[in-house]
Amino acid sequence: MKSTEAQSNGATYFKPTILHLGDDIRWNHDLYAELARKFNIIRTHSVGREAFKSALKDKTWGDFVAMYRPFWNTGGEMGNWDEELIALLPDSCRLFASAGAGFDWVNTRLLAERGIVYCNSAAACTESVADAALFLILSTYRLFSWSAQAAHSCDPVRFQDAMSNIAAVTHNPNGSVLGIVGLGRIGYRIAQKVRVFEMEVCYYDVAGLEERAKEVGAAWCASLEELLRRSDCVVLAAPFNGDVLLSDKEFACFKPCARLVNVARGKLVDENALVRALDEGKLSAAGLDVHASEPNVNQDLAARKNVMMLSHAAGASVESHVGFEKMGMENLLGWLERGEEGLV
């Protein structure tokens, strides 16, 4: 294990090394100072995949025990963490503390086989994502996408069209059924917040989570199909495990003119099937924060006045970034003190 010598009260001890990926710390400077007291921190800054691989092969950074990526927008220039990349990590590495809520870009199973624990910072962006989900839910009922597009066009004809005709095809959400796929932190918070809309909530989650559901008054659905048939609006808040969740078969189960909101991962939805579902009236509207081929957006969906789109920004807030940065450091410090029991 690579380490550096340090002195404390006349005694010599060794600090383990961590690899800080990406940009400088922006907010939690006191906590970073504590991290620096207990670890030898090596910086990579921004480095592309080939350069990163070369440095790992050459042992440029030595036998570090952990990696820390505090921001989603930086420190990921090396691309997906697949077998090619993970195989080059030193045997000493035991922890990867990263920003963000998803893990579709990293092979967590392979990390586990190498004895490396992966920690994201999903809790830090829960509030922001849940708020964005409420915005998208309301948008699908009230077709704010149509109204917004018309206003932004600066075209008086389009403005008048939306103003005059939107009331005949939009609804209030109260009294309808919201189906949440995935009752994790974000799904749970959506269920709490959506009470203000006076909606009935049901959910489907492979983990069951009956006690958590009772706390928010959410009714359990035994299958995804049951939830789809029951819901007036479906919200995806589940992780992407490599499989498409909604395609033609599933869209056929939706109530006529139901709605879809996705604040999870774009690849959970077959976008061509979504287009067909909208064309055929199986869905009346959709709200999409995430997209299957980011940063490319499906042009057919983007052109529709009944589809509200965001740029994968549901979790994007200063508060989320502060939390990402903080949680990663808390995981590193907790792991140093108590092993896996110390992880946040």
UniProtKB/TrEMBL annotation:
The keyword Oxidoreductase applies. One of its GO terms (cellular component) is cytosol. SUPFAM superfamilies: Formate/glycerate dehydrogenase catalytic domain-like (SSF52283), NAD(P)-binding Rossmann-fold domains (SSF51735). GO terms for molecular function: glyoxylate reductase (NADPH) activity; hydroxypyruvate reductase [NAD(P)H] activity; NAD binding. Keywords: Oxidoreductase. The keyword Oxidoreductase applies. Residues 81-336 form the D-isomer specific 2-hydroxyacid dehydrogenase catalytic domain. PROSITE patterns: D_2_HYDROXYACID_DH_1 (PS00065). Residues 164-314 form the D-isomer specific 2-hydroxyacid dehydrogenase NAD-binding domain. Belongs to the D-isomer specific 2-hydroxyacid dehydrogenase family. This is D-mandelate dehydrogenase-like protein. It comes from Didymella heteroderae.
